[in-house]
Design brief:
Number of strands of chain B: 11
Mean pLDDT of chain A: 95
Distance between the termini of chain B: 37 Å
Strand content of chain A: over 45%
Largest interface: A-B, 21 and 22 residues
Radius of gyration of chain B: 13 Å
Number of strands of chain A: 11
Strand content of chain B: over 45%
Number of helices of chain B: 0
Order of helices and strands of chain B: EEEEEEEEEEE
Structural class of chain B: mainly beta
Helix content of chain A: under 10%
Largest sheet of chain B: 6 strands, mixed
Shape of chain A: globular
Largest sheet of chain A: 7 strands, mixed
Radius of gyration of chain A: 13 Å
Structural class of chain A: mainly beta
Mean pLDDT of chain B: 91
Oligomer: heterodimer
Chain lengths: ~110, ~110
C-alpha cells in the first residue's frame, strides 16, 4: 500500500496563476483533509471531506476550492495564487472509526 | 488566543536525560488528544493518544489534566533519534476535525 500520496512534491507559481494539488489514498478512508503549514503557525485546516461528494470548510478556506469526486482522491485548487499562499500543503486521511490521521509527504508551494 | 498552544522551544536535551513539556487547550469541549511527531521537512505521524488516566508507550508518557486544561509529554532516556517537533493535537466533540498546536521542538545532543 502506498498510503497517502501527493502530487506534485514541489511547485513554483507566479501570482495569479492557478493550479491543482492532488491527494490520493489507497486505504479506503472516508475522511480526507487538506492542511497548510507555515512557520510558527502549526498545521491549519483548509478544507475537509467526510465522504465522496462532500466537502466542508476548515479554518482557512479563503482562496482555495476542493473536490472529492472519488473516495480515494481529494483535490485542492488555487484559482488565482497569491504570495500569501506560499506554504507546505499536507493532505491526510483517516477511517471514520479511528483517531489516527495518515499524512501525505507534503507539497512545497512557492508563489512569486 | 490559539485553541491549542505550545512552547515552541527548542528544548535542548542531553542524550539519556528526561524532558517534559506541556500544551494547553482552550476548548473545554475537546474530547480527545494526541501527540504527533514531525521530523524536519517530513509529514506528521501519530506518536500516541492521550488518556485522562495517563498512558505510557516505552519511554514516552502522556498525561491529560482536564481541570487545568493541559496535556503533557515526557520522554525518558532521550535518544538522538527523538530529535523532532512534537505536535499537540485536540479533537472536538464532533470528531471530524483535529486542531494542531504549533509544535515543540526537541533537540537531543550527545
Amino acid at each position: 500500500n502506498a498510503g497517502v500520496t501527493q502530487t506534485p512534491k514541489f511547485r513554483v507559481l507566479k501570482t495569479g496563476q492557478s493550479m491543482t494539488l492532488l491527494c490520493a489514498q489507497d486505504m479506503n478512508h472516508e475522511y480526507m483533509y487538506w492542511y497548510r503549514q507555515d512557520p510558527g503557525m502549526g498545521l491549519r485546516l483548509i478544507h475537509y471531506s467526510v465522504g465522496e461528494g462532500t466537502t466542508a470548510k476548515g479554518e482557512v478556506p479563503d482562496g482555495y476550492n476542493v473536490s472529492r469526486l472519488k473516495k480515494q482522491n481529494f483535490l485542492l485548487g488555487l484559482e488565482s495564487a497569491a504570495p500569501s499562499q506560499t506554504s507546505v500543503y499536507f493532505c491526510a486521511s483517516r477511517d471514520w472509526k479511528d483517531n489516527e490521521q495518515f499524512f501525505g509527504p507534503g507539497t512545497r508551494l512557492t508563489v512569486l | 488566543r490559539k485553541e491549542v498552544e505550545q512552547d515552541p522551544g527548542p528544548f535542548n536535551v542531553p542524550e539519556g536525560a528526561t524532558v517534559a513539556f506541556n500544551c494547553t487547550y482552550s476548548n473545554s469541549a475537546s474530547q480527545s488528544f494526541f501527540w504527533y511527531r514531525q521530523d524536519c521537512r517530513k509529514e506528521p505521524k501519530l506518536l500516541m493518544s492521550v488518556y485522562s488516566s495517563g498512558n505510557e508507550d516505552g519511554r514516552f508518557t502522556a498525561q491529560l489534566n482536564r481541570a487545568s486544561q493541559y496535556i503533557s509529554l515526557l520522554i525518558r532516556d532521550s535518544k538522538l533519534s527523538d530529535s523532532a517537533t512534537y505536535l499537540c493535537v485536540g479533537r472536538g466533540a464532533a470528531g471530524n476535525k483535529l486542531t494542531f498546536g504549533g509544535g515543540t521542538r526537541v533537540l537531543v545532543k550527545p
